[in-house]
Design goal:
Helices cover 29% and strands 33% of the residues. It is an alpha+beta fold. A 6-stranded mixed sheet has the order 1-2-3-4-6-5, sandwiched between helices. Helix 1 (2-15) packs across helix 2 (26-34). The chain starts with a helix and ends with a strand.
Length: 153
């Protein structure tokens, strides 16, 4: 698990810049992995990376009561626009469905470039939290909540 945590933290450090204050600490990442969370790594070739091999991206989710919430989802910048995000999102969806999820949820800051990917996959906006996120410089950004219902697709 330490190898996986190191790879997740490396992707987080590259993918989430300081402008939004979204990069977590190793302790936060470790706490998520020790909890009732599920994660999947993806390598540059679109498969699960071998032990010791760098990850190109990851998803981290939590399952409960027929729903699976995508907590973190990231592709390292040098691996973007190569279909890895789409593949990772499909893997997340399949894994969640296998765990019994009828619905997928996620929340993101307004202006997140991944919104196009989520909408293309079939997620629809179901909520808005005005001024929910705060950037390191104090700016406030809305949070948008999305859902994907397996029954509706």
């Amino acid at each position: 698990m330490k190898d996986d945590l190191d790879r997740i933290m490396a992707v987080m450090g590259a993918a989430f810049g300081p402008a939004h204050g979204e990069g977590g600490t190793p302790r936060q990442g470790g706490d998520l992995l020790l909890g009732r969370s599920y994660y999947r790594l993806i390598g540059a070739a679109g498969q699960v990376p071998e032990p010791g091999e760098d990850a190109a991206g990851f998803s981290l989710s939590r399952h409960g009561f027929g729903e699976e919430e995508l907590l973190l989802f990231a592709i390292a910048p040098e691996h973007r626009r190569k279909g890895l995000g789409k593949a990772l999102l499909a893997n997340f969806s399949e894994d969640a469905r296998a765990r019994g999820a009828d619905r997928l949820l996620l929340e993101m800051r307004r202006g997140n470039p991944a919104e196009f990917l989520y909408r293309q996959f079939g997620f629809a906006q179901i909520g808005l939290r005005p001024d929910y996120y705060r950037t390191p410089d104090g700016k406030r950004i809305d949070a948008i909540t999305f859902a994907f219902d397996f029954a509706a697709k």
